[in-house]
Specification:
Layout: H1 5-17, H2 25-33, E1 54-57, E2 60-62, H3 65-74, E3 82-86, H4 92-98, E4 103-108, H5 111-123, E5 129-133, E6 146-151, H6 160-164, E7 166-177, E8 182-190, E9 193-202
Parallel strand pairs: 3-4, 3-6, 4-5, 6-7
Antiparallel strand pairs: 1-2, 7-8, 8-9
Helix pairs in contact: 1-2
């Protein structure tokens, strides 16, 4: 018997997210409403709702659903925020964020992926997402400040331009570490300084750019 995509998303939310500690009702609803299969290459469509990263070309991946949900939950969005995403990739995370915030600016360094992501987002009619091709490690100062910034690539350090572009009270969620293992980290900017929290280990492709890894340093990419 064939199982439709809506049922697969319901099962994904129940089994992969809720059972592993995702409690934010808005995040769960956004994950349930966003068709992940539209953001993966056709040959991987049958695995679209399994809890694993999948290749999307150019040595990049679409993150596993649990990681997408955990990072979105860590941003603590109420629906009124201006969000910056670094690393558009397939566009899936941006699609989820678009249901949680007022506007999403998403930066992708690879033009081919940016075009593909825009196409998928247009098919879904998500008009509050702006995809820009640029060096994401530098942020997007022309549209700052942001209430929340999410980085879907691993950085050897927290890029200072991203911290600078946070609004007071803003949250930055980013994987920080070496090329092989990182710690998912949340920074909260206050009038008294920046407070750091850690959410455990993860593995992402490297953040390549002026404030991230150089291309030669990131030659052994992880996902």
């Amino acid at each position: 018997m064939m199982v439709d995509d809506n049922s697969l998303r319901d099962e994904m939310v129940a089994q992969q997210l809720m059972k592993r500690g995702i409690k934010d009702a808005r995040v769960l609803e956004a994950m349930r409403d966003t068709p992940r299969h539209l953001f993966v290459p056709r040959r991987y469509r049958a695995m679209a709702y399994e809890d694993m990263p999948l290749p999307i070309g150019h040595d990049q991946t679409i993150s596993q659903p649990f990681i997408v949900a955990m990072m979105a939950q860590a941003l603590q969005l109420s629906g009124r925020e201006r969000v910056l995403e670094i690393g558009t990739g397939s566009g899936y995370q941006a699609a989820v964020l678009s249901r949680l915030a007022t506007v999403v600016f998403s930066v992708e360094r690879l033009p081919e992926l940016a075009v593909r992501a825009r196409t998928a987002l247009d098919i879904l009619g998500l008009r509050n997402i702006h995809v820009i091709v640029a060096d994401g490690s530098l942020g997007l100062p022309e549209h700052a400040p942001y209430h929340a910034i999410i980085v879907a690539a691993a950085s050897p350090k927290t890029p200072q331009p991203l911290v600078d572009q946070l609004a007071p009270g803003g949250r930055l969620v980013i994987p920080v570490g070496d090329r092989h293992e990182q710690t998912l980290t949340r920074l909260r900017k206050t009038n008294h300084g920046v407070y750091v929290e850690q959410f455990g280990g993860c593995r992402f492709v490297p953040l390549i750019g002026e404030e991230g890894w150089r291309r030669d340093e990131a030659s052994e990419e992880t996902s």
